[in-house]
Every structure is written in C-alpha cells, then in structure tokens.
C-alpha cells in the first residue's frame, strides 16, 4: 500500500473538525456531507496501528492509507469515524473494540480517551453516584436515584471484615480507593477506572519503613490541571505510641504523581492540625476538616488546606457559629463553591444541618442553607451536578436536599450505605483503557 497525501484546509487540530478536505476528484466539506463524497477506494487511515501518523502535519496534510480491498467495510472517512465515536457513551465504545482490530487500537489510544472525555462530558450529563460495598460498587443515577448497574471491585475483600472499601476521591472517571482503613499507613492504595475495569496499585509510601504503631495517615486525590497530572497527597502523623488524638503532632507529607508513578516527600510547613475527614478538592486546593489544641479548648475545629500550585498549607478561618453546632465536613460543589457543613444534634430527632458558603473574593463565610433532618444525620456526602446536597440519615438511607426548591427527599435504594465508600461525582471515562 502506498500512502496518499491529501490536502486539508481550515483544519483545527488533532481530533478537531475539518471544514474542507480535498483529494483528486472529490472534496469533503463537513461530517454531515459524507454521503456526497466520492471515495477513491476504502479508508484505513485512523484505523492504522499508529493513529498519530494519520493526522495532518505542520503542512496541514493527512496521510491516508488506502485499503487493497475496495469492497472492505471501512468505507467512512476517518475523521467521520472519530466524530461519531466522540459522541458515543463509554459502554458503547467498549463494545466497539470487539468489532475489529483497528477500532480496538483507536479507542484504546490515550489521546482519543482524553478527547472523548472532554467532548462527551461537554455535551452530556455523565455524572453518577458510586456506592461501594465489600466487593461490589453500585452506579446510581444522580437525578432519578435509580440503580443503573454494578461493578466488581478490583480486589477481593472478606465479607467478615469490619471495614471494606474506602473511597479517597475521584476525578475524570478515575477513583482512588483503599481496602480497609484510610488512616492505616500500611494499606495498599489504588487508582481504578470502574468503566473499563483498569486498576493501578500505587507504590508503597516513602514513610513505610517507619513502625506502623502509633501512625495515622490521611489521603487526598485529584487531577491537577496546571501540571496535567493526577496527584495523591498523603499526610502521616507519627506519635510514637498508640495515644490519640495526635493533637499537636506535625505531619509528614508526600505526594504521588501518576505521570512519574512515584512518591515525593514534600518539605512544607504544616500547622499541627489533626485531620479527621476525607479530603475535598476545589479549584486546585485540598481541604480537610480537623482539630488542634488551643488554650481554651484541647480539640477546637479547624479547616486545613493545601494548594497544589504553590505547595503551601494554610489554616482556614471558620464561620462564626454558636455552640453546640459542630463541623461535620467541608465540601466543594460542582459550581466551584466551597461549603462548610455544621450540625446541631437533638438525639436524632429534628437535627439541623447548616451549610455555610465561602465568599470567593474575601474568604469569608455566608450562611447559605438550613436543612431540617427529621431522621437525624449519619453522614454528609456532598453536592451533585444536578443541584442537590446529599447526606445519609440515621436509618442509613440516602437523603437529597434540592438547592433550588429547598425540598428534602428520602431515597430507599435498597443498598447498604458505607459512609467511607460513597462518591457523588463519579463519571464514566475511557482513561486508563490503555493499561
């Protein structure tokens, strides 16, 4: 086969749209006009072993490889195939990999995975609630709260274990999780894509040589846009004994980079705040709820933040709330706002949740919502992209609070909730499909 070079005008980049593609005897204008194209044979361009060679170079030329068999079914222009695939859901694309080797190579290409994620999520609602149990994860629609399907966990846990899955966080369809307790330094940590069943075990901690006795570990996971990399941050508290609650202990810090597949010890000044919550990632910054020893109160609540851009830890001033409200969580919403969630307990009857929203300009707090919880509060879960705040009541049932209508609704999913294994912003993607 001899490669033929076709001239492209007004091309907008790799996996981008074309307004004009011409070759001797025919002109391809738009994907919608493909049926008018006079194909001089069949196409096998993007379906080649190396898709990178099938796109125009700096001279805006495409390398089109013609098939020897003119009756081959690969008769669509490659850019049209790309355009169609970018519109398909992940589940359909996975099935398409079984059609032929060429489609298999294309769909598993990391560049296509990224392009599909950006394109599909800009045009579709691709957000779900992921609920983990011992060895099964349930995918639930974040609008109807109906079960869509289940996914087998990437490792097997004994159902007799007291603790099962522990979700650290998710980003772009990748879920960071650990079997067992998050705060145990010796536990393995994984990054998993449930959509494509691909899983990666992270290297052991740089602090793993320390004696595990009297050690508490806290984690956070997110995609760092500035470095185009996925990061896991770990704070490790060493007390030298099993005494709790590790007040006044300054943690050691390390950060994992997916790009380099390695941990790096971070030399940063960290306030002596003992973290007691799952990390929330919002606009490039991790947030944890914690406490530290002060003059009047040995366990006063604090909010600790870590900025991935400047590598600095900071203490965040809390809202002015009246006792006996207690800080339950710090959560980021899909709109980019940061909320602190406080509760006032009345023994499980008519408990109150108060959501305070941070002012993005001056860093102050404004009271945003007050939620009456007739059946108590067992766990706060977070905000969905559909505009709902989710929590679990004392019956371990999912409760949604609509931020517009201010109405609450209890959802009996028929699934046992595990407060450490619920992700309300899970989305499907092809990332990691090349593993």
Automatic annotation (TrEMBL):
SUPFAM superfamilies: F-box domain, Galactose oxidase, central domain. Residues 70-120 form the F-box domain. It comes from the Eukaryota. It holds the Pfam family F-box-like. This is F-box domain, galactose oxidase/kelch, beta-propeller, F-box associated interaction.
């Amino acid at each position: 086969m001899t490669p033929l070079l076709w001239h492209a005008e007004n091309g907008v980049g790799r996996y981008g749209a074309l307004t004009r593609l011409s070759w001797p005897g025919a002109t391809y204008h738009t994907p919608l006009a493909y049926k008018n194209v006079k194909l001089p044979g069949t196409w096998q361009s993007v379906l080649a072993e190396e898709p990178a060679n099938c796109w125009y170079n700096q001279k805006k030329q495409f390398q089109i490889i013609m098939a020897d068999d003119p009756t081959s079914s690969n008769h669509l222009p490659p850019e049209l195939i790309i355009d169609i695939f970018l519109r398909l859901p992940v589940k359909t694309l996975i099935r398409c990999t079984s059609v032929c080797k060429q489609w298999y190579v294309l769909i598993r290409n990391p560049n296509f995975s990224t392009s599909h994620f950006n394109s599909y999520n800009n045009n579709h609602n691709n957000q779900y609630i992921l609920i983990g149990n011992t060895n099964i994860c349930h995918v639930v629609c974040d609008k109807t709260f109906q079960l869509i399907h289940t996914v087998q966990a990437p490792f097997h846990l004994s159902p007799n274990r007291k603790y099962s899955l522990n979700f650290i966080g998710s980003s772009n369809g990748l879920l960071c999780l650990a079997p067992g307790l998050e705060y145990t330094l010796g536990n393995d940590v994984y990054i998993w894509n449930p959509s494509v069943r691909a899983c990666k075990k992270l290297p052991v901690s740089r602090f793993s040589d320390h004696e595990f006795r009297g050690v508490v570990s806290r984690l956070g996971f997110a995609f760092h846009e500035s470095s185009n990399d996925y990061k896991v941050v770990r704070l490790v508290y060493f007390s030298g004994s099993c005494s709790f609650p590790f007040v006044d202990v300054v943690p050691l810090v390390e950060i994992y980079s997916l790009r380099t597949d390695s941990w790096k010890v971070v030399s940063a000044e960290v306030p002596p705040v003992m973290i007691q919550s799952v990390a929330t990632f919002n606009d490039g910054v991790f947030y944890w709820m914690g406490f530290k020893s002060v003059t009047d109160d040995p366990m006063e609540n604090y909010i600790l933040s870590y900025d991935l851009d400047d590598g600095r830890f900071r203490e965040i001033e809390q809202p002015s709330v009246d006792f006996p409200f207690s800080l339950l969580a710090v959560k980021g919403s899909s709109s980019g706002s940061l909320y602190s969630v406080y509760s006032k307990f009345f023994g499980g009857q008519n408990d109150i949740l108060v959501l305070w929203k941070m002012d993005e300009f001056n860093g102050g707090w404004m009271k945003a919502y007050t939620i009456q919880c007739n059946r108590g509060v067992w766990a706060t879960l977070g905000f969905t992209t559909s505009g709902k705040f989710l929590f679990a009541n004392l019956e371990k049932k999912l409760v949604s609070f609509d931020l517009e209508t201010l109405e609450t609704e209890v959802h009996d999913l028929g699934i046992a909730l595990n407060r450490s294994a619920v992700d309300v912003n899970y989305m499907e993607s092809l990332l990691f499909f090349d593993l």
